[in-house]
């Protein structure tokens, strides 16, 4: 069930009921003189809201999303060894008392510490740590989830750590609501992390009541990457960053060097996530030193279209606008891109594309792209097992957004935010722009309105870390000279309605189909990168593709066909 939080409406206590006032996530931050005015009225009984300044309104129950069933856990055997003498000394050296070992049912077997992972009364995983060496392993059939998940159920805050010892260190400091990720931090160079983060998909709903989430990951590059991904999934607006003092790498270091009071102070001094309004240069010192040492994040690539990858790398938090003459293959090409990104990097996409004739036709296209086989005719036609395989892949990586009767942008963005929270999507495709329902205010020009929408999309991308791909049609293009089939190549300035499609976007490109003047059945596709704001992301240029009609997929060409 969706909540007010899913739409950015904060500081509402639904247990109190009745009418309440709070800040409006749509307009409060834009108001210079009244940004602290609680202009949003919320009726917690009827689950409705209305802003007295910008007139943003709605009903939470109107926004619905059908989630695929969360993976079900099963209990696995775990026998606690009551003789914990072998590990009591080890935990004492880490500042953790025997009572905490026993409460969390930690045991030992053949020189390995056993950390059982419980959900309710069921042991669903066991993490093993070698006492003498820093080696780890987990149960073969263990269920990926947070360690100590029972301790945060129905709590209003939680602390997320990078390791079990750190979570236990917070418990030693009197903070039971501390959990740990099961697999440690994330390598800054890692591309496909979806499987590593499966534990979030499986257990994020246990945090629904947590208004504040403290991110207490290690202070190195691996911990910072984990912190960034966790904040993206849980929402930066409710996350606080726990900073450890100089000379302390993690929570257990603080416990050993500064004691219980020192560790507790780290939590009380936790910082709000620096996502908007004011940024202080020193807040980014560690990030900049990391960039100086290791370079910028290289982004992710398709791994299939090598020339395309040389020109552009996908980064989080960007707005990319794609244009092209109708029927030149914009939607099809972007479908190819998101399939290849999912295969190569594990990036997941949500697609709002109401122009598709039906979900089945769209799914057939995705299946053909994924398998490089035709669905219907052909000697290499896919079989039922292949259909199941491809559908399983699509089901896990690509989500279709199609509201029944509300194509408002806020509705689409709210649904995408829920998909981010539940499944960690990386891309939102809006295809095309003119399918969104728009409400110009009296006296507002189309140019001004489009600028407002594009800024909203760009800010949404920055705030959520989602890469937004917006497809938009150009004006009617003129034919080239006396050509029978070929038109001028559109640029972003040609998009109907406003030059702001070029001005505001971070990146932009064009899908263009060039026909043989002597045979209209022959054509190839030219893709033009026409705007890339940052030199660290890519470079301008053209890449040529051939199109396989039977599999609706593309292959790069070395030279143009004609």
Helix content estimate: 25-40%
Number of helices: 14
Taken together, the total number of domains comes to 3
CATH homologous superfamily designation of the largest domain:
P-loop containing nucleotide triphosphate hydrolases
What's the pLDDT, averaged over the residues?
Answer: 88
Per the CATH scheme, the topology name of the largest domain is Rossmann fold
Using the alpha-carbon principal axes, give the shape. Answer: globular
Q: What's the level 1 CATH class of the largest domain?
A: Alpha Beta
Poorly predicted regions: none
First CA to last CA: what distance? 55 Å
SSE layout:
Elements: E1 19-22, E2 40-43, E3 48-51, E4 57-59, H1 85-93, H2 98-103, E5 107-109, E6 112-119, E7 122-130, E8 136-138, E9 157-161, H3 164-172, E10 178-180, H4 198-203, E11 212-216, H5 221-234, E12 239-241, H6 251-268, E13 271-272, H7 285-294, H8 306-311, E14 319-323, H9 330-345, E15 349-352, H10 359-371, H11 384-397, E16 398-400, H12 409-423, E17 427-430, H13 446-464, E18 467-472, H14 500-504, E19 507-516, E20 519-532, E21 541-548, E22 553-556
Parallel strand pairs: 9-10, 9-11, 11-12, 14-18, 14-19, 15-16, 15-17, 17-18
Antiparallel strand pairs: 1-2, 2-3, 3-4, 5-6, 6-7, 7-8, 12-13, 19-20, 20-21, 21-22
Helix pairs in contact: 3-6, 9-10, 10-11
């Amino acid at each position: 069930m969706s909540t007010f939080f899913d739409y950015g409406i904060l500081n509402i206590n639904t247990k109190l009921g009745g009418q309440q006032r709070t800040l409006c996530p749509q307009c409060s931050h834009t108001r210079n003189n009244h940004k602290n005015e609680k202009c949003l009225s919320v009726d917690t009984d009827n689950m409705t809201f209305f802003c007295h300044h910008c007139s943003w309104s709605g009903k939470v129950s109107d926004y619905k999303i059908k989630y695929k069933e969360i993976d079900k856990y099963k209990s696995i055997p775990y026998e606690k060894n009551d003789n914990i003498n072998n590990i009591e000394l080890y935990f004492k050296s880490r500042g953790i008392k025997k009572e905490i070992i026993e409460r969390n049912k930690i045991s030992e077997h053949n020189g390995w510490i056993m950390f059982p992972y419980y959900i309710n009364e069921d042991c669903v995983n066991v993490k093993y740590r070698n006492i003498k060496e820093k080696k780890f392993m987990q149960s073969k059939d263990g269920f990926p989830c947070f360690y100590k998940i029972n301790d945060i159920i129905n709590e209003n805050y939680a602390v997320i750590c990078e390791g079990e010892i750190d979570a236990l260190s917070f418990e030693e400091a009197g903070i039971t609501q501390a959990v740990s990720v099961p697999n440690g931090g994330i390598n800054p160079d890692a591309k496909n992390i979806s499987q590593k983060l499966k534990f979030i998909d499986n257990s994020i709903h246990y945090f629904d009541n947590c208004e504040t989430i403290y991110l207490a990951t290690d202070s190195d590059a691996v911990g910072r990457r984990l912190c960034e991904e966790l904040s993206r999934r849980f929402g930066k607006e409710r996350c606080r960053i726990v900073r450890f003092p100089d000379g302390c790498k993690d929570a257990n270091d603080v416990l050993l060097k500064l004691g219980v009071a020192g560790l507790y102070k780290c939590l009380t001094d936790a910082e709000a996530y620096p996502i908007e309004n004011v940024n202080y240069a020193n807040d980014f010192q560690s990030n900049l030193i990391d960039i100086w040492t290791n370079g910028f994040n290289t982004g992710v690539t398709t791994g299939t279209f090598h020339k395309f990858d040389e020109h552009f790398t996908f980064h989080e938090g960007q707005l990319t606008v794609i244009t092209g003459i109708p029927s030149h293959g914009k939607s099809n090409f972007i479908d190819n891109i998101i399939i290849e990104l999912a295969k190569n990097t594990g990036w997941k996409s949500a697609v709002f594309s109401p122009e598709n004739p039906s979900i089945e036709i769209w799914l057939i296209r995705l299946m053909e792209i994924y398998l490089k086989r035709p669905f219907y005719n052909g000697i290499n036609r896919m079989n039922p097992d292949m259909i199941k395989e491809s559908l399983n892949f699509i089901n896990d990586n690509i989500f279709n957004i199609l509201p029944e009767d509300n194509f408002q942008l806020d509705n689409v963005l709210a649904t995408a935010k829920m998909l981010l929270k539940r499944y960690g999507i990386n891309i939102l495709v809006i295809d095309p722009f003119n399918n969104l329902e728009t409400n110009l205010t009296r006296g507002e020009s189309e140019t001004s309105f489009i600028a407002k929408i594009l800024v909203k999309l760009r800010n949404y991308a920055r705030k959520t870390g989602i890469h937004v791909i917006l497809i938009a049609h150009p004006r009617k293009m003129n034919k080239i000279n006396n050509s029978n089939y070929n038109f001028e190549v559109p640029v972003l300035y040609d998009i109907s309605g406003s030059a702001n499609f070029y001005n505001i976007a971070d990146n932009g490109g064009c899908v263009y189909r060039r026909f043989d003047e002597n045979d209209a059945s022959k054509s190839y596709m030219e893709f033009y990168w026409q705007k890339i704001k940052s030199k660290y992301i890519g470079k301008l240029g053209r890449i040529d593709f051939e199109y396989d009609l039977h599999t609706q997929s593309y292959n790069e060409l070395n030279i143009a066909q004609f």
